[in-house]
Amino acid sequence: MQKIVVEGGLPLNGEVQISGAKNAVLPILCATLLADGPVDIGNVPHLHDVITTAKLLGELGAGITIDEGTLGKGRSITVDPTTVHSHVAPYELVKTMRASVLVLGPLLAKYGQAEVSLPGGCAIGSRPVDQHIKGLQALGAEISVDHGFIKAHRNGRLKGARFVFDVVSVTGTENVLMAAALAEGTSVLENAAMEPEVVDLADCLNAMGAQVENAGSGRIIVHGVERLHGGSHQVLPDRIETGTFLVAAAMTGGRVTTRRSRADTLDAVLEKLRQAGAEITVEDDRITLDMHGRRPRAVDLVTAPYPAFPTDMQAQFMALNCIAEGAGVINETIFENRFMHVNELLRLGADIRVDGHTAVVRGVEKLSGAPVMATDLRASASLILAGLVADGETTIDRIYHLDRGYENIEEKLSGLGARIRRIS
Ligand code: UD1
Predict the structure, then answer these.
(1) How far apart are CA 252 and CA 6, in angstroms?
(2) Is 204 one of the catalytic residues?
(3) How far is Cα 125 from Cα 336, in angstroms, rounded to an integer?
(4) Protein residue with least CA distance to atom 7, ligand 1
(5) Rg of the chain over CA atoms, in angstroms?
(6) What is the pTM of this model?
(7) Residue of 175, 173, 140 whose CA lies nearest to 156
């Protein structure tokens, strides 16, 4: 099994190009199922989750063409959904990637039926899909959960409706939004997720002829249309990847510029980095973080739905607090079990105390390199960040988590001067 070895101690310096957003490209790939013709998606990141989604669409019968692109121009994928013949998302694929549940809404709306294996538990919490199901039922779908499968069908077209989400759910909002795009009449989705990835999905749907308004607000309005056509869309830059590189720069006392990034999607993260003592300048699609060789100050944070501080950046900021001046309190409100990186950070010499959903982190002068194990995607990133500032070598095992969500992370970090390599 592959591992990543990091030798700590060097400040990061230079420029790094940000890839397309994982959490945008996955729903967008699923949305192509709604179209009557091929959809061309650009700025697609090289990620394991993208391959899994392409496999799933292929299994449903869609034609998939991947263009690796030229240097500096990301990969693009064209999905031709006109050959879809199956409506079943099997357990083998769904269990490896929870986002597979995003085919539920499109299959149901377009083909009248869908069978999607229940995603089940996952390392960071139980993560139910009740909001997806209730939202689709509000549009008139009949849904049962049988033998581990969500089985959905409709009689006639789905009907536009007003639906209020009990909890803010990103993929829940996306599933219901995609289904509403082909429903008869207008739907109003209240307490909808406001994440930039939801907006990117809505932009893609509108490029296919949908009529979605107010995405990015908590009240999305969808005027259903009879059909969607093929089209093209460029995926927005990954704000979590951007944030991860900026935290790496801050922790190492370096100066890093992210290219092809979107500062307007990172307000809460940039604010925390400024509190940590970083100087941040934004110019068009470039964000520069300069730490001027200083040690960061510890920050307090509370994770919450966008535009508040993202849970997907919690582990990276915990790593930052581990070596910062002072102490920071981290409160995780989204997922019940998202502190699994704590035990691994402790192995590197961190001082962290966890009480329920709260972690108190006291910065230490130095972490010391050790073998550690990645437990989920963002936890893996936090261990690499910690390795960048630890004495000696840190070896990170189970990095398949990392390959699900970060494109070429070790190459990108090497380009900034880090000593990092992948071994088998
Ligand atoms: C998405 C992101 C993930 C991010 C998370 C929160 C994708 C592919 N993944 O995951 O990276 O960490 O948003 O920003 O976009 N919940 C329910 N019932 C539901 C659905 C969710 O109770 O039907 C709860 C969850 O258990 C969790 C909270 O709502 O406590 C938020 O989850 P949700 O926004 O749905 O996360 P995902 O969409 O799975």
Answers:
(1) 13
(2) no
(3) 6
(4) 23
(5) 21
(6) 0.97
(7) 140
Distance CA 294, CA 76 (A): 40
Helix residue ranges per DSSP H, 13-61: 22-31, 48-60
What are the E-state strand segments in 58-112? 63-67, 75-80, 88-89
The amino acid at residue 186 is T
Q: Which of 94, 118, 167 to mutate to test the pocket of ligand 1 (most atoms within 8 A of CB)?
A: 167
Nearest to 290 by CA among 13, 3, 7: 13
List, for residues 186-219, the tens digit of each pLDDT value.
999 999 999 999 999 999 999 999 999 999 999 9
From ligand 1's centre to the CA of 175, what distance in Å?
Answer: 12
Q: Say yes or no to pLDDT of 87 above 60.
A: yes
Distances (CA, A) of 1 to 50, 210, 373: 21, 44, 12
Tens digits of per-residue pLDDT, 394-406?
Answer: 999 988 889 889 9
Cis bond upstream, residue 305 (ω within 30): no
- Point out the ligand 1 atom lying closest to the alpha carbon of residue 27: 8
Whether residue 262 is predicted with pLDDT greater than 50 in this model: the reply is yes
**126: exposed, middle or buried (Cβ count in 10 Å: 0-12, 13-18, 19+):** exposed
Q: Is the pLDDT assigned to residue 25 strictly greater than 70?
A: yes
Residue 8 neighbours by CB distance under 10 Å: 24
Are the C-beta atoms of 77 and 64 separated by less than 8 Å? Answer: yes
Ligand 1 lining (C-beta closer than 6 Å): 23, 26, 98-99, 125, 127-132, 167, 169-172, 197, 311-312, 334-335
| Residue 124: pLDDT over 60 | no
The whole-number pLDDT of residue 121 equals: 47
Per the prediction, the chain carries an average pLDDT of 95
Residue nearest to atom 21 of ligand 1 (CA): 169
List the residue whose alpha carbon is closest to atom 25 of ligand 1: 127
CA of 378 to the centre of ligand 1 (A): 14
For residue 206, the SS3 value is helix
How long is the chain? 424
Q: Order across the sheet with 371-373: list the strands.
A: 371-373, 393-397, 3-7, 419-423
Atom 4 in ligand 1: which residue has the minimum CA distance?
312
